[in-house]
UniProtKB/TrEMBL annotation:
Organism: freshwater metagenome
Any one GO molecular-function label of the UniProt entry: metal ion binding
One Gene Ontology CC term in the entry: cytosol
Alphabetic keyword roster: Calcium, Magnesium, Metal-binding, Thiamine pyrophosphate, Transferase
Co-factor requirement: Mg(2+); Co(2+); thiamine diphosphate; Mn(2+)
Protein name: transketolase
Record lineage: unclassified sequences, metagenomes, ecological metagenomes
Length: 302
């Protein structure tokens, strides 16, 4: 997991990190390699095993952040972020710099079915004032997201996938600045006829759809938008340079489409609960695939 690698790489530079999960520490990439576990016998341990109690974990993170001197990070699956909502709201309200890491971020979870497949959670987290939500597209964006978290002053939600995603062409050069600004043009053409704006693992879907359209002579820009909050903090000139008015724009995100009208004229998303099947099949059946995305663009241009 990219986030796990990044976290351990930066630990030597940020020794105040404390991290753990609600019985899912390894699954969400919050294992601090070589670090002792916080316990009654060793209160200096920086690895925390919270147990299956997400709400308590959130409250502990907020308390540690308000105490100061540490950067507390805790995680679980995204669908269980609902159990943590009071603590997340309190972190945002009080400016407590806690890091909430939520993985397994879409119906790509697969066979566990709708109970474990988040669809409304990402958008609902964006509703919380003073919380920065980051949903990176690949390993390079994950590294850039952690940089934003370390350097920032507000609580952050880092949203990660279960399924693998390729390292995308261009992110090595563009992600560091692009993620810090919330969004950036990842793939472009001189005069795009359409724009695809996506987050997380769906950026790869958007890139593939854009390549299909390009082969048909439809020039398409791809915008990666990992953080709405950071993007909205940019000046109008930058925002309009990335997402100019007057060009048909289609959003691609494996979650509810409510809210995307801010940026897009059409949406590819999931406005229903998922299904129990392999993650790739669920995504495909619900239209999160390049073929469907490309057709939505064609329909916008018709």
């Amino acid at each position: 997991m990219a986030s796990q690698q990044v976290l351990n790489a930066i630990f030597a530079q940020v020794p105040g990190i404390m991290a753990g999960g609600a019985d899912l520490t390894g699954n969400v990439g919050l294992t601090l390699k070589g670090q002792t576990v916080l316990s009654a016998e060793d209160p200096t341990g920086q690895q925390i095993f919270f147990g299956v109690r997400e709400n308590a974990m959130g409250s502990i993170l907020v308390g540690a952040a308000l105490h100061g001197g540490v950067l507390p990070a805790g995680g679980t699956f995204l669908v269980f972020s609902d159990y943590m909502r009071p603590a997340v709201r309190l972190a945002a309200l009080s400016g407590a710099k806690a890091v909430f890491v939520w993985s397994h971020d879409s119906v790509g979870v697969g066979e566990d079915g709708p109970t474990h497949q988040p669809v409304e959670q990402v958008m609902s987290l964006r509703l919380i004032p003073q919380l920065t939500v980051l949903r990176p597209a690949d390993g390079n964006e994950v590294a850039a997201a952690w940089k934003v978290i370390i350097e920032g002053e507000v609580p952050c939600a880092l949203i990660l996938s279960r399924q693998n995603t390729p390292v995308l062409a261009g992110t090595k050069e563009l992600a560091a600045q692009g993620v810090a600004r919330g969004g950036y043009t990842l793939m472009d053409s001189p005069s795009p006829a359409a724009i695809l704006v996506a987050t997380g693992t769906e950026v790869a879907v958007a890139v593939e759809a854009a390549e299909m359209l390009s082969a048909e002579g439809i020039s398409t820009r791809v915008v990666s938008l990992p953080s709405w909050e950071l993007f909205e903090a940019q000046d109008e000139q930058y925002r309009s340079s990335v997402l100019p008015a007057g060009i048909p724009t289609v959003s691609v995100e494996a979650g509810v489409t409510l809210g995307w009208s801010r940026y897009a004229s059409a949406n590819v998303g999931i406005d229903r609960f998922g299904a129990s099947a392999p993650g790739s099949r669920v995504l495909d059946e619900l239209g999160i695939n390049p073929t469907h995305v490309a057709q939505v663009v064609r329909d916008q241009l018709a």
